[in-house]
Specification:
2 domains; alpha/beta; TIM Barrel
Length: about 350
């Protein structure tokens, strides 16, 4: 299983609405935003972005700062840069100190104007961890630093491949991609795998992945803020975590979940704990979270629009199709305002999906 995230900066605000609610609905589970660079630069939309992410329910939040070579561009010492960073974060989002899953991203890079040495990123990590006791992850890409990153701080790698313009899930190269290869003595914990992805309503986004479950990410972020704690969950395949079921509706309106051998009644409320993954060879693929902690991760979720989307085997009547279509169309029209979709086209597509099953088309 893979957990997805988005790291943003003020530049993203020039490219779209930075709609964190839409990003969360699309499946983003962690979000960071640039706060400062050196001792002379702040990103003005940082606070607003983190408040939006918090209010949208993104579980893991964070801030990132950019180390600069002391003296380059009149920037201060490593310690002064970290203090400048923390002061700004405290001013903009003082609630971070009580947020249960908060992390720091140290953005170490080779800039055209300043090829920052690894030692400055490591100094940031050490000071941040000592002052805050929160998880620190070092963004220091292998293509820039090779195997020169000392210490054992968890690494945030980047590798874009062809860097396609695509929805962030489609752009992900997979948990076993060579882009996850170890460097500087350890495998990366997080991979930034694209800079032109679509997240929610936003284009040209930096998309990131964590190999593991959301609980593993929460455990990692909530763990000790010391070195030597790189998280390397065993990559899993979707088939390990997905079971095949059929959702059917009887003539009296009762819903049943069937595994091909047995069936049992299921309430519409229970269906909200299914993650709807799409149709596969005539059957619906769903993930059941018995703890009620299911999170939509792609495809249609039965509770997404307050109505249960049925496969063809449900045999809905024309009246049931019309009633459910009305509710879904209203939600789709609101969500796609300005996108140029006509109500007639949406109505036709929804009714066809309710009768025949939702397909990729």
């Amino acid at each position: 299983m893979t957990v997805y995230g988005w790291d943003a900066s003020d530049f993203d605000w020039e490219r779209g609405p930075v709609d964190l609610a839409a990003a969360r609905a699309a499946g983003v589970d962690f979000f960071t935003h640039k706060a400062t660079e050196g001792t002379r630069v702040t990103h003005k939309r940082f606070g607003e972005a983190l408040r939006r992410a918090r209010d949208a329910g993104v579980p893991v939040l964070g801030a990132y700062g950019v180390p600069r070579t002391p003296g380059n561009g009149s920037h201060g010492s490593d310690a002064a840069q970290v203090d400048y960073f923390l002061s700004y974060v405290d001013r903009e989002v003082p609630w971070w100190r009580t947020w249960p899953r908060w992390m720091w991203q140290v953005d170490l890079e080779h800039w055209p104007y300043d090829k920052v040495a690894p030692s400055h990123g490591l100094a940031w990590c050490e000071r941040l961890a000592a002052l805050t006791q929160r998880r620190v992850v070092l963004y220091a890409p292998q293509w820039a630093y090779g195997n020169s990153i000392g210490g054992t701080w968890p690494l945030w790698a980047s590798g874009y491949g062809g860097n396609p313009v695509a929805a962030f899930r489609q752009a992900y190269p997979g948990d076993t991609s060579p882009r996850w290869a170890a460097y500087s003595g350890r495998p990366p914990t997080i991979l930034q795998y694209g800079s032109r992805t679509v997240i929610g309503r936003q284009n040209t986004c930096d998309a990131n992945a964590f190999r593991g479950t959301l609980q593993q990410l929460l455990d990692f972020v909530g763990g000790p803020a010391t070195e030597g704690t790189t998280s390397t969950p065993t990559p899993s395949t979707e088939e390990d975590e997905v079971q095949e079921y059929t959702i059917a509706q009887a003539a009296d309106g009762r819903l049943f979940v069937c595994n091909g051998m047995t069936s049992r009644p299921v309430t519409a409320a229970e269906l909200n704990d299914f993650v709807w993954l799409g149709k596969n060879e005539g059957r619906w693929r769903i993930r059941w979270d018995a703890k009620g902690e299911g999170v939509p991760r792609g495809g249609w979720h039965p509770g997404a629009f307050g109505a249960v989307i049925q496969p063809a085997s449900a045999a809905l009547t024309d009246e049931q199709v019309a009633a459910q279509a009305d509710r879904i169309v209203a939600a789709l029209l609101a969500a796609s305002a300005g996108a140029g979709l006509s109500e007639d086209r949406i109505v036709a597509a929804v009714k066809r999906a309710l009768r025949e099953g939702v397909t990729a088309s």
